[in-house]
Amino acid sequence: MSLEQLQAIEAAHVIPSYARMPVEMVRGAGTRLWDVDGNEYLDFLSGISVLNVGHCHPAVVAAVREQVGVLTHVTNLFYTEPAMRLAERLARSSLGGKVFFCNSGAEANEAALKLVRKARPGGEIVVVHGAFHGRTYGALSATPQESKQAPFAPLVPGFVVVAPEPAAIEAAVHAGTAAVLLEPVQGETGVHPLSEELLAAARAACDRVGAALVFDEIQTGMGRTGTLWAYEQTGVVPDALTTAKALGGGLPIGALVTGERLADVFAPGDHGSTFAGGPLVASAALAAFDVLDDAALLASVRELGERLRAGLAALPGAANVRGRGLMVGFETADAPSLVRRALLEERLILNATGPATVRLLPPLIVTADEVDDALARIGRLLSAVVA
Questions:
Q1: Rounded to whole angstroms, how far apart are CA atoms 286 and 248?
Q2: pLDDT tens over the chain, length 387 residues
């Protein structure tokens, strides 16, 4: 079926909620993708930080193939070993409490919002400008972006929006605060790491009034920033975190992970999800964990992240290079145009998070040679703009 035929089907039958690139992808392996015409692409987006293990990692493929022929779904009214093992591994790798499974990052944040509201009924939730926590109603209400919120008002009440500054957090938190919800690195609005001072101030403010500190690690988790969880680099430990994206190695799964204080807030019937933590996706996640929870790999993420940022900073036309690990952004004129040209002219997959920001999220298995290759391709694109 031709691209034109696919576009005709989309126009007739698909709700127009995505602005797709004019390419049909048919195969992936490692850091590479191939389109229907056989063109090879270097992927520095990873499905928006989903494929941290790379495309079709052999361990994930083997786990899925084995599980799909045995048991795919039974409901959470029964036990399955993959789900229980994954919950144990998530908890022990992070906050030491308990886990609620779901199917996506937005759902994980919805679970977190319900959890902190049950812990402190009616409590306010403090978020900061520049945040993105999802598109479902609770998560959207925690995402203070006018363009995303305005068409769907009225939203869920009880959210307090402040500047991403320590003093603003301190002033906003009071006895009626249920939680402060933060991304250690704001991803969808342009890869902006929150300062350690802000995170520490949020921790102190929550401790002062007994509120919960929740970290949205949907994009930063599973090794993206060079440690398994981004909070490990900050000196600040949250009361709960949310994860999704890379957790399933390419399959859809999300999770809310608590520390001990919030571990038993939910009771049976408080929350649920039909597909959550099913044996197929849990098996894939366990395989992805084996790949990503590796000291040598995480050290490589930190090293290659520095190499990528330094290389970008040396390119004319790339400004305000920033990030942590292999979560990198930079400013340039007309970022959407550059990203489109990167795809069509250089066979390099990038992402524009706004009119002037390019985001890079390569698979964590990327090599130094591939980082240098991507830098060369970006350099050629930028040189044409500067010239």
A1: 8
A2: 899 999 999 999 999 999 999 999 999 999 999 999 999 999 999 999 999 999 999 999 999 999 999 999 999 999 999 999 999 999 999 999 999 999 999 999 999 999 999 999 999 999 999 999 999 999 999 999 999 999 999 999 999 999 999 999 999 999 999 999 999 999 999 999 999 999 999 999 999 999 999 999 999 999 999 999 999 999 999 999 999 999 999 999 999 999 999 999 999 999 999 999 999 999 999 999 999 999 999 999 999 999 999 999 999 999 999 999 999 999 999 999 999 999 999 999 999 999 999 999 999 999 999 999 999 999 999 998 766
**For this structure, is 216 an active site residue?**
yes
User: Which of the following is catalytic: 132, 159, 266, 330?
Assistant: 132
Q: Estimate the crossing angle of helix 295-313 against helix 368-386, to 10 degrees.
A: 20
Dist CA 153 CA 21 (whole Å): 30
Nearest to 261 by CA among 238, 230, 242, 235: 238
Residues near 136 by Cβ (< 8 Å), separated by ≥ 6? 106, 107, 110
Q: Which one is catalytic: 98, 215, 245, 289?
A: 245
Q: Is 208 helix (H, G, I), strand (E, B) or coil?
A: helix
How far apart are the C-alpha atoms of 371 and 306, rounded to whole Å?
Answer: 11
55 DSSP 8-state letter? B
CA distance 39 to 27: 10
All domains in the chain, ordered by first residue:
62-292 (3.40.640.10)
